[in-house]
Amino acid sequence: MPNTNLLDGCTAEHYVYNGGSNGSSVELYKIIGGGHTWPGAYPIGPTCQDFSASEKIWLFFRKYKLNQFVGVDNIKNYSDLSMYPNPSDQSITIEGDDILFVSIVDVNGKEVIATKQKQINISMLAKGVYAVVIVSEKSRVTKKLIKI
Length: 148
Prior knowledge:
- The structure is a single chain.
- By secondary structure, the chain is mainly beta.
- It has two domains: 1-75, no CATH class; 76-147, Immunoglobulin-like, CATH 2.60.40.
- The chain has one helix at residues 53-61, and strands at 11-17, 26-32, 82-84, 91-95, 99-105, 111-115, 119-121, 128-136, 140-147.
- The radius of gyration is 24 Å and the shape is elongated.
């Protein structure tokens, strides 16, 4: 890449690897002489100013569509797993076949309930938002639970 800022003490190299499945590619920006900083951001120590990392990331991702590399047929439909009522203050019910286990996780990532039951008492949980991970033989889905 052109060294457009001679005062930053850094240079950048750009590598493109084409020929992936369905026209995919991978790009690498290698910073030489830079610190652990974001290229193009306000310089804190040695920060490459030859390009904006935010702009390059956007230019890369806007080339692709979300389902371009995974066909719609390959995306599993999780409608067979459900949870209700939500919000709830006392209990929730999990519906679906072949449920292996259910894990309820708080906002800090701590598992607060782990069970194989489909009817789950949540009355002891503090009010707030939780993630409910439902695992069956065929799928795994995470749902948001609001405890009121």
